[in-house]
Amino acid sequence: MKLNNGKVLLFFGTIHALLAVSPFAFGTQFNRFTEKFFFKISEGLFEFPLLQGQMHYENFAAFWFFYYGLLLIPLGILVLHIESTNAAIPKSFIWSYLIVVLIGVYMIPFSGMTFLMLPHAIFMLFQYKKEKDLKVRPRSKE
């Protein structure tokens, strides 16, 4: 059975978004966001410490955790479409994905980036190399 990378990305995105709104992660922040109907969840630059503001790190974390999950969903759909047409995922996409994941691993080492997405990105790279090797090898004459 071939691992479908698009489905993996869709799974990661869905779980990320659902976990973000759950009471186990950022449920408290999302309850506060709903009070403002998800409008103006922060003060923007006015929260910047150089402007004598007070940053609300939990709100930023909640927003980006949820937003990253939402970004993974269309990305997964795109990769799923590429794979369904039997086309190879472009090497530039795989390297970009790996770089984004490595930045996430560096920034938050004890996270899903390290334990789930990093192995997936490395697997995609090996899968690309294996598919490329299969296409390059000449057929043996029998």
How would you describe what is shown here?
The protein has 142 residues and is mostly helical. Helices cover 68% and strands 0% of the residues. Helix 4 (91-107) runs antiparallel to helix 5 (112-136).
Structural key phrases:
single chain, 142 residues, mainly alpha, 2 domains
What is the arithmetic mean of pLDDT? 84
Number of strands: 0
- Class by helix and strand content? mainly alpha
Shape: elongated
Number of helices: 5
What's the helix and strand layout?
Elements lengths: L4 H17 L5 H9 L21 H28 L6 H17 L4 H25 L6
Summarize the structure.
With 142 residues, the protein is an all-alpha fold.
